[in-house]
Write a structure and sequence with these properties.
The complex is a heterotrimer of chains A (290), B (934) and C (247). Chain A has 290 residues and is an all-alpha fold. Chain A folds into two domains: 128 residues, no CATH class; 133 residues, no CATH class. Chain A is 69% helix and 2% strand. In chain A, α1 runs antiparallel to α4, α2 runs antiparallel to α3 and α4 packs antiparallel against α5. The longest helix of chain A is centred in the middle third of the chain and has 29 residues. Chain B is globular, with a radius of gyration of 27 Å. Chain B is built from 25 helices and 33 strands. In chain B, α6 packs across α14, α11 crosses α12 and α21 runs antiparallel to α22. By secondary structure, chain B is α/β, with parallel strands linked by helices. Chain B has a seven-stranded mixed sheet, sandwiched between helices. A six-stranded mixed barrel of chain B has the order 28-32-29-31-30-33. Chain B has a four-stranded parallel sheet with strand order 11-10-9-20, with helices on both faces. Chain C has a single domain, classed as 2-Layer Sandwich (Alpha-Beta Plaits). In chain C, 21% of the residues lie in helices and 18% in strands. Chain C is built from seven helices and eleven strands. Chain C is elongated, with a radius of gyration of 25 Å. Classes of the chains: A mainly alpha (290), B alpha/beta (934), C alpha+beta (247). The site of one iron/sulfur cluster has 13 residues of chain B, from α1 and α7. The site of one iron/sulfur cluster has 13 residues of chain C, from α1 and α5.
Chain lengths: 290, 934, 247
């Protein structure tokens, strides 16, 4: 798939934002006053910025409200509903914490569950796409969830939990790659099955339907070199999980936390770039691109 | 939960449907043009039309984008920059016509041959030829010489008609279909419809083609033949059939010259005093006139006369093709096929022809008066096109194919190949060529025709050609369509003489229809020492900003096909079906929004200004107001005009009848065409069927019945051969004697393509194919079609791919003895191992066709034409032989030999890269999202 | 509504005959022409005369090569448009309800006025059958010519998809694949019609007829077809004489 910067940024930022809201809501760290204002502000800001980025990614943002209607079947619709619900439900808690210094745990817990569900919904948007076998796998949601929670924990300055989550995230990323590499083959789609000609012999694209580009190729057929991908994976794993976890083992300070957070987010951008760029859509089979 | 939006399931499609004829190619399908207000909204096929029955190809459906093309010329143009630069000013029609008249009038009055008027794939050749005849120049022809004259001439000489416009397979009954060397052909939709019918019935299709794409992709069996060797392959099939006795002797005796006795001394037919060829009567052993009633003509034995045995044609034929040199084992290697393949195809032909014989319970009477109670069919049909004809052995190869069809009795019989009226028409029924001219006088007769011997050549007493293209000279004796591809180089070389004005219509001669394009561009711009051009004047009519436009001094902009009257005439290139006579028109379904005029009307105007006979009234006024007026009122012979339908004052005559002022309106009412079905008993055996012959006379196709027999042995060829052997008073130049002896063989034969001896170091064959979704150079200006084929990758066989270590994304350098091009490579396994190919005519000169100079058509495409020369490389005899068929002069496009190498890394622009031409039309819009609003 | 109907009254769709398709692209262009003028926004073309032209098409023809161990390689031209899947993932992912499958005939459509252009349905389609129009920024897909097949402004015989009407080779068939008695269902049964990527679980309605066996012509014994065999006894001339006697 085309690694669209807006999508990468959206998933990383809103993930971290909702992750932070999870921790804030759960009250594992229940700041009050200015601290609450800043932290909730950060959570809302990141989540909101991500959502906005995704709205402007739409062809018709003016019709965005329609996206709330299909929650029965559509994970994207669910995400919209859940994200909004999170932000709404969390609001009393955030306001009370910031301005009245009295957290409202009921709203907090409810908000935290909704935030968690939002992250899951985001992950499910990708996981449900059977046409991208690498995504269509149980290992996709853990990557999204762990990334969001780890990022949130870092933002919330919960170093202990963050360390554990980062380690788990590293493992999840690793698993997602290793198993993901086998997913396309396991899904069983080939040029032969795509054309129904497989039984006749070895099937290969001779001529694409048009000599130029098209939307499908630009959007869905992206090919990354193996070597390039390997380097990026190391980078994503190192910066996204391993290094920040190691840094957190150092004596805690704002500096170490900030460094770990920056590294983590940078690593995660790389991971998300790969998440899209490495995602082989089966339609590539019709273009000789698999 | 269902909550579907309400849809308007019956939207208004259009305000009005106007029915006319497509001209996105020469197939001439009927179209329904849906109009919204006065704008064209949508084009679909006309279901009632005999050619396409409602279907439409990609080009046809994209006609709307052609009609709206930004490359459309907008007004007459006068050149102001150097030739080739594309620098023009727009002028008025008055000025343009005055310039043309000023240039042409003096020529007509002093030396009409100094005007060379050549036309491309327009469909008004009977009209333009008539104009040129009236002007008096011998130098007129259309594009057939570079197109497929081998096919046409071989067909007409052998059996009085050929494929496409002349005939078609009996699609409804054929059980085995062989298709040789066809990528698309003119009969574009009908072939696809026919193949569809065969497929629906599960009939077998065999494709003989070095490339397995398109029609060959759906062929049940594929013969990936080595280019240029079909003649040998076909004659090997003939060998097998003869050996097995799987030929239709009865048919050969009745309908061919197989029994004619060949004079052992001269190789001409033995004739009686009345000039009738003689055959041996098996009952008496006597030689009698071939059509003497009640005889049993012999095929096996000859007659003794003057101490020699004079054998029938069939014996000569059998002796030749039964020889071991035609055995499958002997030819397989050369043809790139296996002996088993040849055998099994021969056996399948024999099996289907004779074991799956079909009979129609349809009585008929032959020209001898013999009544037959049924029609017997051999359901094997064949079709072929430029794959076999665009070679220097093409004429003989086409003859070989017809021989094969005739031997099994599969011509004009049910399930086989059928003529379309006005064919069959033997060479004798066609005119002879004419070239006698005098100042201020019309030519002595029609330009083109079918010579029957050296006496009909258009040469001066000293042997020099009378025509600028050297048609009908010893270099190309049977060049029935002229040699358009030689005009520019001959005019530049002033050989055989100097001309003044080159007048071209609808042919992109500065680009894709020329061999050696770069050199032709140089010739068009070539100058004398005083700086004047070697070809002094060039007038050109095009509708679009093509490459050729840039080389003209005066450009006469034509309309698009939806904006003018045209007539697809029986006098010209008809649209008939085997079952019916038909012709059609185009009419202006929209009026032009630019200062352009239909070329035919312009030509009539010019003719009137020049005072050409037939174009002015007695008092010198223009006789026709425009082309529509001409179509309606012109009479070629009394009662015979451009259109055959609704003739006679009341419009109730078919074929013959007085002009009808309402004729065009009647065509428009009827969907743009006219059709007249052949009676059932006249549907088959047309050359010999009395009912057909009489019907054809009634319709004005002939003036009297013209029954004839097929020429297995072609006596006129023998006459040329004899001349080469030193007989007769018209003698070829010595350097041509050996070649004429070899190639003017009266029986089909195969010889290696002329490029063969120079092929050392150039081991590969290079071909082009027409893309089904493009028509020559026109397709690239079409926003929809150019997305399908926007560049020309070079397809190379798996063998070549591996040998050169090609990888995806590589480019190759392709070199011939004449030039080099580079192209991106693509691997194709379903390809003859020694062959590479690319799409024809997609490559563009930068700046042409209103395209961006960086368009892939210019940067990732190249014409193979840069590698092809109109002359072959010198082969040690000090002469440069034409790269053409020696019989008809057809350009031998597919004889091209090349070598290939991997281009250095980083190669990503095709060359040769010519300078850009300036565009005489405004820049196009960037994006399109066009929905027609009335 | 993005909930798929439990079942549809008919399953209208196309049957595409890979044995017959010559790859002419006629269906591609007639589709472009019809759908530019009809159903929703025109199908746009960006940089139409430029270096990188790129337009929206609802139907495209690919060409594949099949190499075989013991027979000549084949080329198969392969037209592809929306398959109107029974289990259409493109529909259920749509957040707005713009994508839906009609309960009366199973046609999968996009309601352009509700489409936010998120592109998710195109991701969900395994076949590459949906294209986002770059000018209008809404999702485009084959409509099965829903505005032709019931159109009372068209003559009865023209109430079929534009691509089917135009296909010169007759390689495209239209009908109700839910009705086992329909001509298309029978064709599918006869010719072994197949699903594309069945492993994707989309249950496509459109079916493809596989190419018939190719290059099977075997060397028969030409001699056995001969009566009498010319080679026998008196050679060709003898055979010729005998045969002529019998004419
Ligand atoms: N390498 C290679 N070269 C080949 C061939 C090949 O197979 N391989 N094939 C050869 C053959 S068979 C042919 S026929 C030639 C064809 O070659 P050309 O006859 O040169 O064909 P086009 O490129 O179509 O050029 C025709 C010109 O007519 C113009 N035109 C189109 N419509 C109209 C109209 O309505 N009015 C007027 N006045 N002009 C119009 C077009 O703009 C174009 O400039 O190419 C030959 N060249
Ligand atoms: N769509 C479309 N239709 C057209 C045209 C067009 O430009 N576009 N042009 C029209 C014109 S002007 C013409 S002349 C006709 C030409 O119609 P075709 O003759 O069908 O066209 P070509 O593209 O020349 O195809 C020649 C075929 O012969 C094969 N071939 C080459 N050499 C050999 C050989 O030695 N033996 C055999 N067996 N095969 C060989 C090539 O692989 C190719 O498939 O098409 C007409 N129709
Ligand atoms: S074959 Fe195509 S382009 Fe040619 S006349 Fe017919 S519809 Fe038009
Ligand atoms: S129109 Fe018919 S033959 Fe042509 S590409 Fe489409 S399906 Fe194939
Ligand atoms: S082919 Fe694709 S777009 Fe069409 S219904 Fe199936 S999944 Fe949806
Ligand atoms: S692009 Fe339109 S139709 Fe597709 S999922 Fe998004 S809103 Fe639905
Ligand atoms: S059914 Fe209509 S919309 Fe679908 S591919 Fe055919 S022409 Fe296009
Ligand atoms: Mo041609």
């Amino acid at each position: 798939m085309h690694p669209a910067p807006s999508l990468i940024l959206f998933t990383v930022l809103s993930g971290a934002g909702f992750g932070l809201l999870v921790w804030l809501g759960l009250g594992l760290r229940a700041p009050t006053g200015l601290a609450a204002f800043v932290l909730f502000g950060l959570g809302y800001g990141l989540a909101g910025a991500g959502l906005l980025a995704s709205v402007f990614h739409l062809g018709h943002p003016e019709r965005a409200l329609l996206a709330f209607t299909q929650w029965r079947t559509s994970w994207l619709s669910r995400e919209a509903v859940l994200a909004s619900a999170t932000l709404l439900v969390m609001a009393p808690n955030a306001a009370a914490s910031s301005f009245a210094a009295t957290p409202l745990p009921i709203f907090g817990w409810l908000g935290a569950s909704l935030a968690l569900a939002t992250i899951l919904a985001t992950a499910m948007i990708y996981t449900q796409i059977r046409a991208v076998p690498r995504w269509h796998h149980w290992s996709t949601p853990p990557v999204f969830l762990l990334a969001a929670l780890a990022g949130g924990a870092l933002l919330a300055n919960r170093t202990g939990i963050a360390t554990a989550l980062l380690v788990a995230l590293g493992l999840a990323m690793f698993a997602h790659w290793v198993m993901g590499d086998r997913q396309f083959a396991r899904a069983g789609s080939s040029t032969g099955s795509a054309t129904g000609l497989g039984a006749l012999g070895r099937t290969r694209l001779l001529e694409p339907p048009h000599s130029g580009q098209n939307y499908l190729l630009r959007e869905m057929v992206h090919v990354v070199g193996r070597k390039h991908a390997f380097k990026l994976r190391l980078f994503a794993l190192g910066l996204g999980a391993v290094l920040p976890a190691l840094i957190l083992l150092l004596p805690a300070s704002y500096f170490t936390i900030a460094t770990a957070l920056l590294m983590h987010l940078t690593g995660l951008l790389a991971q998300r770039w790969l998440f899209f760029a490495e995602a082989e859509h089966v339609l590539g089979l019709y273009y000789g691109k698999r | 939960m269902q909550n579907q939006p309400a849809l308007d399931l019956s939207p208004q499609v259009s305000d009005e449907v106007r029915k006319t004829t497509c001209y996105m190619c020469a197939c001439r399908c009927g179209i329904n043009v849906h109009m919204k207000g006065d704008k064209v909204a949508y084009i679909e096929g006309n279901r009632d039309h005999p050619v396409n029955r409602g279907v439409l190809c990609a080009k046809g459906s994209a006609g709307i984008m052609q009609h709206l093309s930004p490359a459309r010329l907008r007004a007459p143009l006068k050149r102001v920059g150097p030739r080739g630069s594309g620098e023009f000013v727009e002028i008025t029609w008055d000025e343009a016509l005055a310039i043309a008249t000023d240039w042409l009038q003096p020529l007509r009055e002093s030396a009409p041959e100094k005007l060379a008027f050549f036309t491309g794939r327009d469909q008004s050749q009977s009209f333009t030829g008539w104009w040129a005849q009236a002007f008096g120049t011998p130098n007129w022809a259309a594009h057939g010489g570079f197109c497929s004259v081998n096919m046409a001439a071989a067909g007409i000489y052998t059996m009085g008609g050929s494929f496409w416009e002349f005939g078609q397979p009996d699609w409804d009954r054929t059980k085995l279909f062989l298709i040789f060397g066809v990528a698309e052909d003119h009969d574009s939709n009908p072939i696809k419809m026919g193949l569809g019918k065969l497929k629906a019935r599960g009939a077998r299709v065999i494709g003989i083609n070095p490339i397995r794409s398109g029609y060959n992709a759906i062929a049940d069996d594929w013969v990936g033949i080595t280019p240029g060797t079909d003649g040998l392959f076909i004659l090997s099939l003939v060998h097998e059939l003869l050996k097995a006795g799987k030929i239709d002797l009865d048919y050969l005796i009745r309908y061919t010259n197989a029994p004619y006795l060949v004079d052992a001394a001269t190789g001409l037919f033995l004739r009686d005093d009345a000039g009738k060829p003689l055959v041996r009567d098996r009952r008496t052993g006597e030689a009698v006139a071939w059509d003497a009633p009640g005889i049993a003509a012999d095929l096996a034995h000859g007659v003794e006369r003057d101490g020699a045995t004079h054998l029938p044609v069939f014996r000569h034929l059998a002796d030749r093709y039964l020889a071991p040199e035609y055995a499958p084992e002997a030819v397989a290697g050369t043809c790139g096929v296996t002996p088993a393949q040849i055998r099994s195809i021969a056996a399948e032909i024999a099996r289907v022809a004779f074991e799956e014989e079909i009979t129609l319970d349809q009585p008929w009477t032959d020209f001898r008066g013999v009544k037959h109670d049924k029609m017997i069919g051999r359901p094997v049909a064949m079709h072929a096109m430029r794959g076999i004809s665009a070679h220097s052995n093409g004429f003989q190869t086409c003859r070989a194919l017809h021989l094969l069809q005739i031997l099994i009795g599969a011509v004009e019989t049910p399930g086989g190949f059928r003529f379309k009226p006005p064919y069959p028409k033997p060479p004798e029924a066609h005119p002879r060529p004419h070239a006698s001219h005098a100042p201020g006088q019309p030519l002595d007769g029609p330009h083109l025709g079918y010579p029957l011997g050296p006496e009909h050549l258009l040469i001066h007493d000293e042997g020099t050609p009378k025509r600028i293209d050297k048609a009908f000279s010893w270099e190309a004796p049977l060049s029935a369509h002229g040699l358009m591809h030689m005009v520019i180089s001959n005019a530049h070389a002033r050989d055989p003489y100097k001309i003044d004005t080159l007048f071209l219509y609808m042919a992109n001669m500065a680009w894709n229809s020329s061999m050696n394009t770069s050199a032709v561009m140089d010739m068009l711009t070539g100058q004398n020492e005083d700086g004047s051009y070697r070809i002094p004047r060039i007038i050109y009519s095009d509708a679009y900003s093509s490459e050729m436009v840039a080389f003209a001094d005066l450009v006469l902009p034509d309309t698009t096909y939806l904006e003018r009257h045209d007539c697809i005439s029986l006098l010209d290139r008809p649209i008939c079906e085997a079952e019916a006579l038909a012709d059609s028109i185009r009419w202006p379904v929209v009026s032009p929004d630019r200062d352009v005029r239909p070329f035919q009307s312009v030509l009539l105007d010019l003719g009137a200004r020049l005072g050409l006979p037939g174009m002015v009234t007695e008092d010198g006024a223009p006789k026709f107001s425009d082309y529509a007026d001409y179509i309606t009122h012109h009479e070629r012979r009394p009662g015979i005009g451009p259109l055959a339908g609704w003739r006679g004052a009341n419009g109730n005559c078919a074929g013959r009848g007085a002009p009808n002022p309402d004729q065009i309106a009647r065509y428009v009412e009827n969907g743009g065409f006219w059709i007249d079905h052949i009676p059932e008993e006249a549907q088959f055996y047309k050359p010999w069927n009395a009912a057909y012959q009489n019907w054809a006379v009634e319709r004005g196709l002939y003036d009297s019945p013209q029954p004839y027999v097929f020429n297995l042995y072609l006596e006129p060829m023998r006459k040329f051969q004899r001349a080469a052997e030193g007989h007769g008073d018209r003698q070829p130049p010595d350097h041509l004697r050996a070649r004429l002896r070899e190639t003017m063989d009266p029986l089909p034969r195969w010889y290696p393509p002329f490029s063969e001896p120079q092929a050392e170091g150039f081991p590969l064959h290079a071909l082009t194919q027409r893309p089904m979704a493009h028509y020559h150079s026109w397709g690239s200006q079409n926003a929809w079609l150019r997305q399908i084929h926007g560049h020309t990758p070079l397809y190379v066989s798996g063998a070549i791919w591996q040998q050169h270590g090609f990888e995806e994304g590589d480019w190759a350098i392709l070199t011939s003895p004449h030039g080099r091009i580079t192209l991106p490579v693509v691997r194709m396994d379903a390809l003859n191992p020694h062959t590479v190919w690319t799409w024809n005519a997609v490559a563009k000169r930068r700046g042409a066709w209103a395209l961006d100079p960086k368009a892939p058509e210019a940067t990732q495409s190249a014409l193979l034409n840069h590698l092809i020369h109109e002359l072959l490389p010198e082969k040690g005899d000090g002469l440069r032989w034409a790269n053409s068929d020696p019989v008809t002069g057809q350009a031998a496009w597919y004889d091209l030999r090349v070598k290939i190498e991997k281009a250095p890394a980083g190669q990503s622009v095709s060359y040769p890269d010519h300078s850009a031409q300036l565009s005489p039309v405004p820049a196009p819009p960037r994006d399109l999202a066009h929905q027609t609003k009335p | 509504m993005t909930t798929l109907p439990q079942s549809t009254r008919a399953k209208l769709g196309l049957v595409i005959d890979l044995d017959t398709c010559v790859g002419c692209h006629a269906c591609v262009i007639s589709c472009k022409g019809w759908n530019t003028e009809n159903y929703g926004a025109p199908l746009s073309d960006l940089d139409a005369y430029g270096a990188e032209p790129e337009g929206t098409f609802l139907n495209r023809v690919h060409s594949f090569e099949v190499t075989r161990d013991s027979a000549a390689p084949m080329v198969v031209h392969f037209p592809k448009s929306c398959l109107h899947c029974d289990n259409a993932p493109c529909v259920t992912v749509c957040p707005t309800g713009a994508s839906y499958k009609r309960s009366e005939d199973g046609i999968v459509l996009v309601n352009e006025s509700a489409c936010i252009g998120c592109g998710l349905c195109a991701w969900a389609c395994p076949y590459g059958a949906r294209e986002m129009d770059s000018a209008e920024k809404v999702m485009k897909k084959c409509t099965l010519c829903v505005d032709r097949i019931y159109n009372e402004n068209l003559p009865e015989e023209d109430r079929e998809p534009a691509c089917v009407r135009t296909c010169p080779a007759g390689a495209r068939h239209f009908g109700d694949l839910g009705d086992p008695e329909s001509a298309v269902s029978k064709l599918v049964a006869e010719r072994g019609g197949m699903d594309l990527m069945p492993e994707q679980g989309t249950k496509p309605v459109n079916k493809y007829l596989p190419p018939r066996p190719r290059d099977t012509l075997a060397t028969p014994d030409l001699a056995s077809l001969c009566d009498p065999a010319p080679e026998a006894a008196s050679g060709f001339l003898g055979w010729l004489d005998r045969t002529l006697e019998r004419l």
